[in-house]
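Hello,

Following up on my earlier ticket. Below are the two sequence lines again, exactly as submitted.
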Amino acid sequence: DGGITQSPKYLFRKEGQNVTLSCEQNLNHDAMYWYRQDPGQGLRLIYYSQIVNDFQKGDIAEGYSVSREKKESFPLTVTSAQKNPTAFYLCASSADRRYGYTFGSGTRLTVV
Amino acid sequence: GENVEQHPSTLSVQEGDSAVIKCTYSDSASNYFPWYKQELGKRPQLIIDIRSNVGEKKDQRIAVTLNKTAKHFSLHITETQPEDSAVYFCAAYNTNAGKSTFGDGTTLTVKP
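Thanks for your patience. The regenerated structure is below:
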């Protein structure tokens, strides 16, 4: 069953901690994306990657980091430099520029 | 960069009525315009899309129109049903940049 899997579903972070959100896809998609969703707001792009070993900053990259060592995986690290990390994080992938995104089910991150 | 504005932010209709959501974009290099539906607590899902060489596209009760000259596109839902209640997002995809910019979303409520 092809799809895109995000884990964990819920994540709690203490002040000053780095945490990593997982995103794995078995759709053989080249492009992968990370978006942040806050209540009542749209989706804001954090980072994206068109191919393995290459990624670009999105509109709100500060305080986040990513890697793309494998086509299937695009993990997002929320660092302690991100001062307001509480949000819903969505990972997406796309076959190529002719198609829309397939989204994961999201990770809800809360600072405690 | 690209800027996408979406209106209205909330829309309430009676079951059976039509609903229209409008989006404008700023970058003439954008050439692909998907629409996503996000039900409460779930991932966004692609429901319809349109490319810049097409003016209108229909899929059963939903349709999308595009006016490239005016840089706006709209989602039309006819014969609305309670299960159409969700948040709808428009997006503009820029092939050169390799990413989509999303509108802030429209919360559609269909009252039985």
